[in-house]
Amino acid sequence: MPETTLAELAHEVRSKNAGPFWVTLELFMRDADGYRVAADETFLNERVVASLYRVEEETIQIFRIPSLNVVKISFPRPVSQGSLRDRDMHAGQHHVPLARMVVPLS
C-alpha cells in the first residue's frame, strides 16, 4: 500500500524567512480532512518539528488556523540569514522534511 505524505494532502507546503533570525513553515491543506491530519497534535507537534529540524523544542511555535485549513510553524534559524554558514538564504527549501512526512493510516 503506498504511503501518503503531508505534501499530497496539501495545496501547498512552503517555507520562508520570518525575518533574518526565524523560519516559518506553512501547510495549506486542501480540505478540512487534510487539515485534521496536519493539525493533529499527536502527529505534528513541537517534539516532531524539533526532531525534523534539529532545533530546541521549546523555541517552536505552532499556529493551527482551522478557518483557513492552515498550520504554520515558526522556529529560530540555526544561523542568521546571510551569515557565512547560511546555506539557504531565503529558507525556501526548509519545507521539504515537513512535506515528506508520512501520514498515519486512518
Jot down its keywords.
single chain, 106 residues, alpha+beta, four-stranded antiparallel beta sheet, 4 strands, DUF4387 domain-containing protein, DUF4387
Could you tell me the mean pLDDT? 92
Helix tally? 4
Q: Which parts are unreliable, with pLDDT below 50 for 5 consecutive residues or more?
A: none
Helix-strand topology string: HEEHHEEH
The helix content is: 10-25%
Assembly category: single chain
Strand content: 25-35%
- What is the CA–CA distance across the termini? 13 Å
**SS-derived structural category:** alpha+beta
Task: Write up what this structure looks like.
- With 106 residues, the protein is an alpha+beta fold.
- It has one domain (6-99).
- The chain contains 4 helices and 4 strands; from the N terminus they run αββααββα.
- It has helices spanning 6-9, 32-39, 46-53, 96-99; strands spanning 10-17, 22-29, 61-65, 70-76.
- It is elongated and about 45 Å long.
- The relative contact order is 0.27.
- The model has no long low-confidence stretch (mean pLDDT 92).
